[in-house]
Amino acid sequence: MAKILVIDDEAAILNLMAKSCRQQGHDVTAVQTGKDGLQALDATHPDLMIVDLLIGDMNGLDIIRHCSENYPDIQVIMVTGNGSVETAVQAMRLGAFDYLTKPFELADLQRTVELALQQKGKPKPSETDGFETASIMVSSGNLIGESPKLTEITKIINKIADNDSPILLEGEFGSGKQMVARTIHNAGSRSDSPFKVLQCSALPEDLLENELFGSPTSRGETIFSRAAGGTVLLEEIHVLPVRLQSKLDTYLEEINTRRMMNDLPRHMDVRFIASSAKPLNEGVEKGSFREDLYYRISVIPIEVPPLRSRPEDISLLAKHFLKQYADRTGSEILEIDKYAKRLLEGYSWPGNVGELQNAIERACAFAEEGRIRPVDLPPKVTQKVEITDEDEKTTHHLPIGTALSDYIRKQEKLFIRETLKYNGGSREKTASMLGVSIATLYRKMGLKLEKDKMLQS
Predict the structure, then answer these.
(1) Span 384-456: which CATH code?
(2) CATH label, 308-382, candidates 1.20.1640.10, 3.40.50.300, 3.40.50.720, 1.10.8.60
(3) Is residue 54 helix, strand or coil?
(4) What is the tens place of the pLDDT at every residue in 241-260?
(5) Is 176 exposed, middle or buried (0-12, 13-18, 19+ CB in 10 A)?
(6) CATH top-level class for 148-304?
């Protein structure tokens, strides 16, 4: 349960938002004036504040500014009735987590509230300047892990540290793409200059356009000008509208041309990095992503692996998050017992690094006697699905969250064995019945096929 402060001068809207938050199980304080809102803010120190832009006696932006300056750990959601792009930008830069435009669905409010509370204690948009909501591996800008895949990425970073060619980071949500970008920035000569993040999926098209290319009221200020001399990371570029893809391609081409001519103005002197949770080449094939822009931003491509493909890094990351939690709360660093460690390393982490971080924070809240045990971990990490293999008289335990492909492989093996049994052990008949080649049958069974049999198939 979280403490939430709601400020809105419209009684009906105020009561509706308060009721919605209470239905989520939260402790809600609701007030109708800015003056009462500031008093409640100072008195209750809520986890989250929802504030209307126009309250009658005060501008909501002034309340957000007061909250950001005095209580930076409080999450803020702004509610506006006019949908002003400039106002939304201003609120986000002051530290607001998100904004909602009236009229809005209660489901949208509840979803935004939960997202905001999940991000409490993590870097705010004003700190990344990009409305970033994804989890970060480590704020210092160093990658954590010793797996071969992460070691290879580190080698690439060392080679390109001072190369200004565009970089494309591809990988699943939460895999740590932003942290790779931060490490690239910190490794080179631009490390003392700004690192700015803009998340394409977090903003409507008109607001996104203003952030990238400016507007009449922005006086030419864009994310590129704010990152002058440093690095711009454009996250989830796969959702960038096609119209803006064309403008971005033209802008990046101008940067490249003027850089080669030694005529690059300060506001365009940036290293450009893009990230995508979906393969952009597939977007090119489907026509949803411009081919010219794809080749322009992928001069240096880096694939960021999901956490399940580097299990040797899980314990190191868990220890890091334990230290982060201890530093933030002023408590002792907890230990993880061997049984809990096995569960952490055996889980597939579909939410990647962000899910692991949340699991560790939850475990810290429930742990007793300085040690994290299996009972302290989220149920989905400890619960398993049983698949019984009658032929081998064994039971396979797959953690909840296991990739569907892993489950299917287990089932395939069981079905192949039953079909083999039906055919008296004949692999040729079994392959024919299943409609696959002998080579495919052997591969699915995990067996090696002799060269002559492979040629026959």
Answers:
(1) 1.10.10
(2) 1.10.8.60
(3) strand
(4) 999 999 999 999 999 999 99
(5) buried
(6) alpha beta
